[in-house]
Amino acid sequence: GQSNRIYGGIGLGLAISRRLVEKMNGKISVKSREGYGTTFLVLIPGVPLLKNETRRSDQILYTETIVFEPGNIFVIDDVKINIEAIEILIAGEGLEVKSASNGEEALEKLKDYKPDLILLDLKMPGMDGYEVARRIKSDKVLSKIPVIAFTASVFSVDTVVKSENFDGQLLKPVRKSDLINVLARFLKHRVIRDNRNEESHDPLVDENISEETLQNIPEIIDLLEKKMVPKWTVINGQLILFRIEEFAKELEEISSKYDLGILKSYSLKLLKELELVDLISIKETLNVFPDLIISIANLSAKK
Questions:
Q1: Which pTM value belongs to this model?
Q2: Which of 35, 231, 234, 257 has the fewest CB atoms in 10 Å of its CB?
Q3: CA distance 296 to 222
Q4: Element (H or E) spanning 281, and its range?
C-alpha cells in the first residue's frame, strides 16, 4: 500500500527487465538527464515480425452512446481478474455476466445455459480455447452463439482470423471502448447521438461562437499555422507522448485566450487520450488537426 512516489522502489523492475532482455540475446541501456527525463533503449536481434497489422479499430465516436438491450455474456477464463474486469467494464449496461474457469466446466454449463455471446480465453489449463471453440461450433444448438477470442497475445491473431470457430477477437488488457464495440457487433442495441451534432454530423463544428471570437479567426489561424503546425508535423510522425501533451496544453491555452470551444474540445479530447495512453486514438486525433484548422477558418463563412 505504499506510494512509490514517496518511498521509491528497490530496483527489482529494472533488474528483471535486464534479465528478460538478456535471455532474448538482447541488450538494454539507459540515458538519463536530471530535469529532462530518461530514455531506455532495448535492442533485441532476430525478432520475427507479425505480417498483418494488429490494431484496435472501429472506435465508437465520442458523439455516440450505445444502449444495449438486456443480454447474457459468458466469460470463459481461468484468471479471475479477467472475468472481474469484464464485469466492471459493462456494469450498468444491462448485461448479465456468467463465467467458467476452464473449458470442461464451460461446456458442462452450456448444456443448460445459452448466452447471447461468449468471451473465450485461448490459453487455459487442460482444454484450451481453440478446442472449446471447436466443440461449441460443432454443436447444432450452440453453433449460432458468437464466440470471441479473448487473448493477451497478438501472435494469436493470425490463428484466430484463419479459424472458422471464432467470430471476433478482443485483446487483453481490454479497454471499455473495444469491449463495447465488439458487443455492439452481435448484441441488440440502439445508438443515441449527441444532439449538438445532429444537424451537421461534424464533431468539428462549433455553433456557440461569439462575435469577438469570429473577428479573431484570422489571428487564430495565423497563430495555428505559424506556431502549431510545425510542432504538429514533428509529433505526428514520432508519437512522443510528453511532446503531444505539451502540444495539447498549448492548444488549450489558445482556446481559452480566444474563447474558441471547437479548439478546446479538441485539446481536451487529446489530453484524455493521453491520460488513457490510447495510442491509436491519439494518432487518429492528431491526424485530423489540419481539418480542424480548415473548420476554424470556415467558421466566419458559416456565420
A1: 0.49
A2: 35
A3: 11
A4: helix 279-287
pLDDT confidence of residue 105: 96
Q: Are 175 and 273 in contact (CB under 8 A)?
A: no
Cα–Cα distance for residue pair 212/125, rounded to 1 Å: 66
pLDDT given for residue 213 in this prediction: 83
Pairing of strands 64-68, 27-33: unpaired
DSSP reduced 3-state for 229: helix
At 60, the pLDDT band (50, 70, 90 cuts) reads very low
Contact 99, 83 (CB under 8 A): yes
**pLDDT for the residue numbered 50:** 65
What does pLDDT average to over the chain?
A: 82
Neighbour-count burial for 105-114, b at 16+ CB within 10 Å, e otherwise: bbbeebeeee
Q: Using an 8 Å Cβ cutoff, are 296 and 224 in contact?
A: yes
193-222 pLDDT, tens digit each: 544 444 444 444 445 677 888 888 889 998
What end-to-end distance do the CA atoms of the chain give, in Å?
56
Beta bridge mates, 151: 171
